[in-house]
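Hypothesis: this fold can be encoded by more than one sequence.
Test: take the structure tokens below, design a sequence, compare later.
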């Protein structure tokens, strides 16, 4: 994965809001993009799928920066976000592949996507919406759902409204009738890039 960084960065900078100078200032954004791409790559490998056969929805996609990279590397990727401001920042390249809507109200038919992924989104929503969010993610995906939560306490990150352990999320999914697949989780965590960085998401 890592030897491809150079080519991926060249492709990404062409569609990133603000261009290359902004990327230099916000290096964390670059690493986030690589992490998220590695997650999708690991999911695809676990499911035995390769681009462009995997249709992906990024829930809480912000301005579509992950969708942009995924599409440029062959995945059929789409995104959804509730933020008008994020849509204004989206590049013309990626905007046609973005939906406007909330995590708990995704405007597509059942089983539209092979995989639904979301990172750093559900913890920003009130706990009383989490059941509906998880149910929607499952509804629109045929094969798998991957949810990543940045488990930083609310005392440090005040916008984290639902901040619980991975065990809490597993129990919630089981109550909703969903099966947690530990092999899929391990496949993601042991992706070479994510394992090297000791991937910090609870997922």
């Amino acid at each position: 994965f890592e030897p491809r960084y150079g080519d991926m960065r060249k492709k990404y900078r062409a569609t990133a809001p603000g261009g290359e100078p902004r990327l230099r200032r916000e290096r964390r954004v670059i690493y986030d993009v690589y992490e998220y791409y590695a997650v999708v790559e690991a999911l695809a490998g676990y499911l035995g799928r390769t681009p462009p056969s995997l249709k992906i929805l990024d829930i809480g996609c912000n301005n579509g920066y992950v969708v942009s990279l995924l599409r440029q590397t062959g995945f059929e990727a789409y995104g959804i976000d509730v933020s008008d401001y994020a849509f204004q920042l989206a590049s013309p390249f990626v905007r046609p592949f973005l939906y406007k809507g909330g995590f708990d109200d995704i405007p597509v038919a059942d089983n539209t996507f092979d995989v639904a992924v979301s990172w750093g989104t559900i913890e920003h929503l009130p706990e009383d919406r989490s059941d509906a969010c998880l149910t929607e993610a499952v509804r629109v995906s045929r094969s798998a759902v991957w949810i990543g939560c940045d488990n930083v306490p609310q005392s440090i990150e005040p916008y984290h409204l639902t901040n619980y352990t991975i065990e809490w999320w597993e129990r919630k999914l089981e109550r909703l009738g969903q099966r947690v697949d530990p092999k899929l989780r391990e496949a993601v965590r042991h992706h070479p890039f994510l394992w090297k960085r000791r991937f910090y998401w609870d997922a």
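The first strand starts at residue 55 and ends at 59. Residues 27-47 form the longest helix (21 residues).
Hypothesis status: open.
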